Amino acid sequence: MLVVKNLAKILGGKQILHNINFCLKKGEIIALLGPNGSGKTTLMRCIIGFYELDNGEVSFSKNTIVNNRKKFLENVAYVPEVGGIYPEMTVFEYLYFMAKLRNVDNKTFIANIRYLTQALELESVINQKCEILSKGYKKRTALAGAMIAYPKLLILDEPTEGLDPKQKQHLRGFLKNYGKDNIVLISTHIMEEVEALADRVLMINEGKLICDTTPSEMKRVCAENSIEKSFCTMVGD
Amino acid sequence: MQLIKDVVNCWGKEFKFYFQSKMIYLILFVYATMSAGFVLYVSDFYENTVANMAQFFIYQPGILATIIPVLTMRLWADEYKYNTLELILTQPISIAAVVLGKFLAAWSVAGIMILSSGGIWGMVAFMVNLDNRWIAINYLITFLMAGSLCALASLIAVFCYNAIAAFLGALALCLLTVMANFSYWIEKIIPDNVILNDLVKSFDFKWQFENMIMGQVGVGGGVYFVLLIVAALWTSLIAVEYKRK
């Protein structure tokens, strides 16, 4: 279980996140929503320990980045919105490097790479350099790298950005399946993705958690029964 | 043990990157040409009555201070450019392993670069009888000195989001470190204070290096370069940690 308690973050003298509290349980797929600049990426960076917290605590299975950095990060993986892969490496080299960093032994690595390249349709580009891959392949390579050790908490920033509709559908199915035994936290602006994937919605506005609900509950906020309209109503547009 | 494994992983990634780019062969060529040029022409090798390797080693701080920034300029700039900093810093490895791995990769390439000047050694050894054991020790001293320059240049690289800025900053710091002749100024200002002169001299990069290659291999010189490496790496680690704030 991921527990975020009283989380606050100040960047460049400005308070980006104010007193955020929530818990995420195994088997949940959570959509993190909010307008641009609301603090979604900062929140995700705080959860994965990239940013030091100004206040509060993030713990996963009772481990925090402060008391047991290694144990905490072994369970958590993050895929940023852009980049996150080394262009000079081939897809295989990248996945191997990620496996070594996550202490995955060779036997497990072979099994995992076989499954992930097949599930994410990366087999045809496995020996190609990441720099020449299309946006969709880059995105899926970054995802495969993050998942090489099957983290219990997977955090994805705009995971379907740059994918074609078929790839989007495929990836959603894949994440839905992965989310059955793990926690998947997704930041997205695509409302159909929230409906298709998420069991729960966390919404932030101006650095504050303003809503923690389910997609179906969220729809009821407006008369049109639409997540998009509800989103606009909630952020005050 | 785990730290060593993590350092080796990070070192391996960086070391491989150097040789994936053709630039490295150009750097090796420039280094070898500069070293040979300084030995043969600047130090009047053919007119000199004593043929030895001293002329080669004496110019190494200046040559390495110019070339090492090219090796370190993309160590951190590429992480910023490709948005991989948050990837590498959120893996279950210590940040020290990342800093150390990057530094060791640059230092290893510097070592290969220094070894590539072996032809000059061979040429001099062909002409005169050299104390090869002593030359080998001087190569090791040069390697240690190169390590301290790599650590200083890596420190600058941590602060720079752009490779060119990292190169220029590191070049300035390395050249200043090599050229700073504190003892010269102190002798001019307070000529009679021997203790102060000796103390200030001990901070001179070039003085320490020249003393060592001229045969005064004491603990002092080695400690000086090792301390410089440790201090620069420690500061780099603090700088990376600070970026997380």
What is this entry, summarized?
The complex is a heterodimer of chains A (237) and B (245). Chain A is of the alpha/beta class and 237 residues long.
Give a topology summary.
The complex is a heterodimer of chains A (237) and B (245).
Chain A (H helix, E strand, L loop, with lengths): L1 E10 L2 E11 L4 E5 L6 H8 L7 E6 L2 E2 L4 H6 L1 E4 L11 H11 L4 H14 L15 H13 L5 E5 L7 H14 L4 E5 L3 H7 L2 E6 L2 E6 L1 H5 L7 H8 L3
Helix pairs in contact in A: 3-5
Chain B lengths: L1 H19 L2 H20 L11 H5 L1 H13 L1 H8 L3 H4 L6 H21 L2 H10 L4 H28 L3 H17 L2 H8 L4 H8 L3 H9 L5 H25 L2
Strand count, sense and barrel status of the largest sheet of chain A are:
6 strands, mixed
What does the main sheet of chain B amount to? Answer: none
* Global Rg of chain A: 18 Å
Helix content of chain A: 25-40%
Largest interface: A-B, 30 and 22 residues
CATH class of the largest domain in chain A: Alpha Beta
Report what the structure shows.
The complex is a heterodimer of chains A (237) and B (245). Chain A has 237 residues and is α/β, with parallel strands linked by helices. Chain A has two domains: 2-75 and 151-234, P-loop containing nucleotide triphosphate hydrolases (Rossmann fold); 86-145, no CATH class. Chain A is built from nine helices and ten strands. The model of chain A has no long low-confidence stretch (mean pLDDT 89). With 245 residues, chain B is mainly alpha-helical. Chain B has one domain (2-243). Chain B is built from 14 helices and no strands. Chain B has helices at 2-20, 23-42, 54-58, 60-72, 74-81, 85-88, 95-115, 118-127, 132-159, 163-179, 182-189, 194-201, 205-213, 219-243. In chain B, helix 4 packs antiparallel against helix 10, helix 7 (95-115) crosses helix 9 and helix 7 crosses helix 14 (219-243). The model of chain B has no long low-confidence stretch (mean pLDDT 88). Chain A binds chain B through residues 45, 48-52, 69-74, 76, 78, 80, 82-89, 97-98, 100-103, 145, and chain B through 2, 5-6, 9, 13, 17, 20-21, 82-84, 86-94, 244-245.
